[in-house]
Amino acid sequence: MDFNKLTDEEKRVIENKGTERPFSGEYNDFYEEGTFICKKCNTPLYTSKSKFSSGCGWPSFDDNLEDAVKRVPDADGRRIEIVCSNCGGHLGHVFQGEGFTSKNTRHCVNSVSLSFKK
Fold first, then answer.
1. pLDDT tens digit string along 56-97?
2. Which residue ranges does the record assign to the MsrB domain (predicted)?
3. Angle, vertex CA 84, rays to CA 10 and CA 58, nearest 5
4. For the segment 8-25, what is each residue's pLDDT rounded down to a tens digit?
5. Which domains does the chain have, with CATH numbers?
6. Active site (annotated) includes residue 84
7. Cβ-count burial of 79 within 10 angstroms (0-12 exposed, 13-18 middle, 19+ buried)?
8. Which residues, at least 6 apart from 110, have a Cβ–Cβ distance to it below 8 Å?
9. According to the model, what pLDDT value does residue 43 have?
10. What is the 3-state secondary structure (H, E, C) of the chain?
11. What residues are paired with 81 via a beta bridge?
12. Angle CA(40)–CA(9)–CA(88) in degrees, nearest 5?
């Protein structure tokens, strides 16, 4: 499988499970209509309809496209990591029960893990 060439920062986050600084990502305050795709493999992950402002400093989504995102226990044992179902690239973490939207779910995603298509 061919993957997109990643910058050092993208590799740090996507392949080595890093985190970008809060409020630094290009998609944190971004609300155009379209689809967010995996930066590494171009798999569609989220639509703009599921994006919302949580104030946490990272792009937040309350739902992913069907079978696009996989949930795995984080190495810290307390959180649930979310990865691209296709390539396994690190996206961020998912949180339940915060009450931001009716779905009561927040996918907290690193902007550098995403690309956007109108």
1. 999 999 999 999 999 999 888 899 999 999 999 999 999 999
2. 1-118
3. 55
4. 999 999 999 999 999 999
5. 8-51+67-117 (2.170.150.20)
6. no
7. middle
8. 13, 14, 18, 19, 20, 25, 58, 59, 90, 91, 92
9. 98
10. CCCCCCCHHHHHHHHCCCCCCCCCCCCCCCCCCCEEEECCCCCEEEEHHHEECCCCCCCEECCCCCCCEEEEECCCCCCEEEEECCCCCEEEEEEECCCCCCCCEEEEECHHHEEEEC
11. 72, 93
12. 35
Are the C-beta atoms of residues 51 and 59 closer than 8 Å to each other?
Answer: yes
Residue for token pair 């949180």: 95
pLDDT value, residue 76: 84
Phi/psi at 14 (5° precision)? -75, -45
Give the whole-number percent of the chain exceeding pLDDT 90: 95
Residue type, 87: C
Question: Tokens 């931001």 — which residue?
Answer: 100
Residues 85 and 29: their CA atoms lie apart, in Å, by 25
CA distance 48 to 40: 19
